[in-house]
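As a next step, we paired sequence with structure tokens, yielding the entry below.
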Amino acid sequence: MLMSDIEIITDGGRRRRWSAAEKLRIVEETLQGHDSISAVARRNGVAPNLLYRWRKLMLEGGSIAVSGDDSVTSNRTVREMEARIRELERQLGRKTLEVEILKEALDKARSKKPILHALSHRPGGSR
């Protein structure tokens, strides 16, 4: 094989940007069930894996997820995060209460300290 027999193909184009309306229309085509997802992708010039991704996003999070092209947080994950927040807030409340109790104890100890200090320096006091 000679070097002159090799053809190099380069893609000079940019990525195509799809509007939310276009994504929704194409995904809706796949949901009608007449053609396979691959056939719909070929017909619309979309990579099948990208169309599968759009479809998954739409089924999980609706049209907002498809238009933003963002990942979707499941309801289970949201519930877990909310439970974690509640637990952290409970722990914060407990620590805040501990700090208040320690401040009060420190204030009481400071108010008694001058009396104890004066008693220990009296003549004949035990030191």
User: Anything to note?
Assistant: The chain is about 70% helix and 0% strand. The chain has a mean pLDDT of 79. Helices lie at 20-31, 37-44, 48-61, 63-68, 75-120. The longest helix spans residues 75-120.
